[in-house]
Design goal:
The protein is of the alpha+beta class. The protein contains eleven helices and 14 strands. A seven-stranded antiparallel sheet has the order 4-3-2-1-7-6-5. Strand 8 (163-165) and strand 9 form a beta hairpin.
């Protein structure tokens, strides 16, 4: 690694805090995009799997960055003046790096390929001490990028912000609600996996919140469409006691992770859409024929359908009852009159005939019957 004496200790600590990544290598280099005419001079640092480019070695804020995780190929060219030019083919762009010092060009190539591919190139021409340094960097980078079983939740500040009241107003009880504190576009994926999700499923959204490489802070991965093609961008979100700090040119502090996403969507004028995975759902419930549930069902009887018809009125074969003969007028007699005129009645009606006549008329035992006169 080149001497970094011009860079003060304060600047080094500030860069480490901003990037939250370990420093592996640094030095001066020239950089340009394919198609540009002139190279620009930068002070470069390889931190993690990213090259941070500073306009001056005394600045703590980087001007550009190159994500080596997107490296597809690296070609080396030697000029007539013995300068080395590296052509880096990335996922969506190509850049060239020129190294003025031929002694450090091989070191730059070794560190770039090691952190990008997580393996040391075989055709390196370095001293044994430099190779040992590469082996140390490789081990650190493998540990740093290894998936963690419990990222994020180990951060005390995360737990502090993930607690929310769950009781009526006035109560001091709080409950741990870690899952609901994350927005729907949060996925526990790496930088490379987030880029693949956005590139393969652009209809699902173009912004993902994910854990940072340090497993303590967070990062935002955004896919933006330009005329030259889609471009991936990454933003650091630092967890603090006061909230979450979005590390921009002018840092923005918001109280929750949901507000982090809302800030990006608002600034982008609703161009950014939080990523959501599409899910397939079945529309029929089927039970296998040999399943225990199907065996419990009773067999269905196969019978002819029942036909309901209107019932005809019953046919009677018995004779109709004879009509009751009409009773003759003046048939009912008053018993009081009969007692008074018993002598006359006795002459006209015999006693037996009188009693039979009363029973037939149906008035015997009643208090009052209509009086008729002969």
């Amino acid at each position: 690694m080149e001497a970094i004496s011009p860079v003060s200790r304060f600047v080094i600590k500030r860069r480490e805090k901003i990037t939250a990544l370990p420093l592996y290598y640094s030095g001066y280099l020239l950089k340009k995009y394919i198609g540009e005419k002139d190279f620009k001079r930068f002070f470069g640092e390889i931190r993690g799997s990213t090259i941070f480019l500073y306009a001056d070695d005394t600045l703590d804020t980087y001007s550009e960055r190159v994500e080596l995780q997107n490296l597809l190929a690296m070609d080396t060219t030697k000029t007539k003046t013995n300068l080395t030019i590296f052509t880096l083919t990335l996922l969506h762009e190509e850049i060239q790096l020129k190294i003025d010092n031929p002694d450090t060009a091989e070191e730059w190539r070794g560190f770039i390929m090691t952190v990008a591919k997580l393996e040391i190139p075989r055709s390196l021409q370095l001293l044994p001490g430099q190779m040992l340094r590469l082996e140390e960097v490789l081990e650190k980078e493998r540990q740093r990028t290894a998936p963690s079983l419990q990222p994020i939740t180990s951060d005390p500040s995360c737990l502090q912000h993930c607690l929310r009241p769950h009781s009526p107003s006035g109560s001091t009880e709080t409950y741990d609600d870690v899952v609901s504190a994350f927005p729907p576009c949060f996925f526990s994926v790496s930088r490379h996996e987030a880029e693949e999700m956005l590139a393969q499923n652009p209809k699902n959204g173009n912004i993902i919140l994910r854990p940072s490489n340090d497993n303590v802070n967070y990062a935002i991965t955004v896919m933006q469409a330009f005329n030259s093609g889609p471009v991936m961008k990454h933003y650091k979100v630092r967890s603090e006691k006061s909230g979450y700090v979005i590390e921009l040119d002018e840092p923005v502090t918001v109280p929750s992770l949901n507000d982090v996403i809302d800030h990006f969507v608002k600034i982008a004028s609703l161009y950014l859409r939080p990523y959501s995975q599409a899910e397939d759902y079945d529309t029929r419930i089927e039970v296998p024929f040999n399943s225990p549930v199907s065996q419990l069902r009773p067999p269905m009887a196969r019978v002819a359908p029942r036909i309901c018809t209107e019932l005809a009125p019953p046919v009677t074969t018995s004779r109709p009852l004879p009509k009751k003969p009409l009773e003759e007028e003046n048939e009912y007699l008053d018993p009081d009159i009969l007692e008074k005129d018993s002598g006359v009645l006795d002459e006209k009606l015999p006693q037996t005939g009188q009693r039979n006549h009363r029973q037939a008329a149906g008035w015997e035992g009643k208090e009052f019957i209509k009086t008729t006169h002969f």
